[in-house]
Write a structure and sequence with these properties.
Oligomer: single chain
CATH class: Alpha Beta
Mean pLDDT: 92
CATH superfamily: P-loop containing nucleotide triphosphate hydrolases
Helix content: 25-40%
Bound molecules: adenosine-5'-triphosphate, magnesium ion
Number of domains: 1
Strand content: 25-35%
CATH topology: Rossmann fold
Radius of gyration: 17 Å
């Protein structure tokens, strides 16, 4: 049986806003097993991005625990957090966060360069992933020379190249036509076969239904619903 890659226990999160306190999560507990392909669903403003930000160490819960591979994220110092961000988690953001001064292939290769991997091999790998996303003619384009969908595909390629165990994607297919969304989903399936865990936030019901199961945010809680 696969072990839990992610375990969330009694998580609470709210935001203080000048108009008052917004309670996002009241008391959330859940587990995700290694190799699960999970759709995170819920209305706009329900907390999908907030949850992904907490798992990826960009934000903190008010209380409760998040365990990644049985490590309590709260207990890590900054060095260990940075290490986990580099080695264990890939993030595809809602706005794709490409580096504007770097070309498509340079953006994709970045995680490997940061990890000091062999430059030549890394570039070959980056190009091969870009080819998988039909971007073989766009290696040397800068983000502002790419369409929204192309930028998103580059961002996904960048997240996938590191081959981390956990891939978090915040509406990765938001800007894409359905056919391209399905292609990206098929890449998620390939990663699942490699026992990678993928959690993707989406508003697209058809894609959500293709996941192993859904985590649905509603009224400050998250429930697992089988598709
Ligand atoms: N830094 C912040 N300060 C105050 N409120 C915030 C902050 N960040 C998020 N929120 C609020 O938390 C709620 C959840 O936001 P979040 O971005 O997680 O929603 P979401 O489910 O990802 O929505 P969408 O589908 O539109 O992306 C929203 O109501 C938002 O206004
Ligand atoms: Mg969001």
């Amino acid at each position: 049986m696969n072990k839990n890659i992610l375990r969330i226990v009694n998580l609470k999160k709210s935001f203080n806003h000048k108009n008052g306190m917004v309670k996002i999560f009241k008391d959330v507990s859940l587990v995700v097993k290694k190799g699960d392909l999970v759709a995170l669903v819920g209305p706009s403003g329900s907390g999908k991005s907030t949850l992904l930000n907490m798992i990826s160490l960009l934000d903190k819960p008010d209380s409760g625990e998040i365990f990644l591979n049985d490590i309590d994220l709260k207990k890590l110092d900054e060095d260990k957090k940075n290490y986990i961000r580099k080695k264990n988690i890939s993030i595809i953001f809602q706005n794709n966060n490409l580096l504007n001064d770097f070309t498509a292939v340079e953006n994709v290769v970045m995680p490997l360069i940061i990890r000091n991997e062999d430059k030549k091999k890394s570039y070959l790998k980056a190009k091969s992933i870009l080819n998988n996303f039909n971007l073989s003619s766009r290696y040397d384009y800068f983000p502002d020379e790419l369409s929204g969908g192309e930028q998103q595909r580059v961002a996904i390629a960048r997240a996938l190249i590191s081959e981390t165990d956990l891939i978090l994607a915040d509406e990765p297919t938001g800007n894409l036509d359905f056919k391209t969304s399905l292609e990206i989903f098929s890449y998620f399936l390939k990663l699942k076969k490699l026992n990678k865990t993928i959690i993707f936030a989406t508003h697209n019901r058809e894609l959500a239904n293709k996941a192993d199961y859904k985590l649905s945010i509603s009224n400050g809680d998250i429930k697992r619903t089988n598709v």
